[in-house]
Write a structure and sequence with these properties.
The protein is mainly α. The chain contains four helices and no strands. The longest helix is centred in the last third of the chain and has 43 residues. The chain is elongated. The termini are far apart.
C-alpha cells in the first residue's frame, strides 16, 4: 500500500479503545516514518528537476539572469510542479500523523493516571 494511502486510512479510523491505543500509536509512528521516506525520495526527484533547470539556465550571462531563467524553467516544468505538490500533500499527512500520535499518547497517559488514582482510593 502506498504510504499516503495508508496515512489516509489510519487518519480516517476512529479513536481506539484504551487497550488498543499503544498499538495505534505505533502504527501512526511507523506510517509517519514511511511518509517521511516517501518525502525524501520525492525531494530527490525534485532535486533532479532543479539540476536540469540549473543546467538549462547556465548559458545566461550573469547570476541574476541565471536565477531568473532557472525559476522560469522550474515554473514551466509540470513534472517538477507535480512532485512539489505531492511533497506538500505528503508533508501534510506526516504532520497530521505526528499530531494524532501525540494526542493519543497524551490521552493514554491521562487514562493511566485515572486508572492509577481509582485503584489507589
Amino acid at each position: 500500500m502506498h504510504p499516503l494511502d495508508q496515512a489516509a486510512a489510519l487518519l480516517a479510523e476512529p479513536s481506539p479503545d484504551v487497550t488498543e491505543t499503544p498499538a495505534r500509536i505505533e502504527e501512526l509512528n511507523l506510517c509517519a516514518y514511511a511518509v517521511t521516506e516517501h518525502i525524501t525520495s520525492l525531494q530527490d526527484e525534485a532535486g533532479r528537476h532543479e539540476e536540469a533547470a540549473t543546467a538549462g539556465a547556465s548559458a545566461e550571462s550573469n547570476d541574476a539572469k541565471r536565477k531568473a531563467r532557472r525559476a522560469e524553467l522550474l515554473r514551466a516544468d509540470d513534472g517538477y510542479n507535480a512532485v512539489r505538490a505531492e511533497i506538500q500533500a505528503a508533508d501534510s499527512y506526516r504532520v497530521r500523523l505526528d499530531e494524532r500520535a501525540a494526542r493519543l499518547r497524551r490521552e493514554f497517559r491521562l487514562e493511566l493516571i485515572r486508572l492509577e488514582r481509582s485503584t489507589n482510593v
